[in-house]
Amino acid sequence: MKLIGTSASSYVRKVRVVLAEKKLDYQFVQDDVWADDSQVPASNPLGKIPCLVIDGGEVLFDSRVIVEYLDTLSPVGKLIPAKGRERAVVKTWEALADGVVDAAVLARLEAHWVPRGDGERSQAWIERQLRKVHDGLRFMGQRLGDRPYCSSVSLSLSDIAVGCALGWLEFRFPEITWRNAHPNLGRLLDKLMQRPSFAETRPS
Known about the structure:
The structure is a single chain. This protein is of the alpha+beta class. The protein has 9 helices and 4 strands. It has 2 domains: about 1-70, Glutaredoxin; about 85-195, Glutathione S-transferase Yfyf (Class Pi), Chain A, domain 2, CATH 1.20.1050.10. Helix content is about 55%, strand content about 5%. The chain is globular. The protein starts with a strand and ends in a 5-residue tail after the last helix. It holds the Pfam family GST_N_2.
């Protein structure tokens, strides 16, 4: 398998962590989707990462699709329940974590995208997206409570998605002091960072 993406992406990191936890071999090909010579559109017409090239040259894209596929490839470290409420809860945690990153990315692009001049940027839009980030973090903290993991007694995709989102916020938005408001989320991330899958995929 070949994974196309960047080490700075939370969505790509989520896939890399799952690959590591499932002990699956792959080749990591770094590609900047913003570069004029990016090869990503040849794999994903939407021009988004991650993309996973599998046997026969077929390409899977969207991190949620990819991690669901990967979890079926090995019985090692099952990360997504097979069915029912437990499965829905894990996927909801993933949607929440990805949604926080989605909103933060939109805020960052509005503030820093080079082709847009300062007079064209909307502070109201930035603040709207950052409210979603803060609301999402508050919801995560409330839902986690004093439990050791988000939705189970052991590691699941819930924790991987949340950990990748929190790590990306620390990387791109150090001014958001979410650890002060939600120390339980900080403890979760610190625990996850002790795992090689997280330690070796720190965003850069």
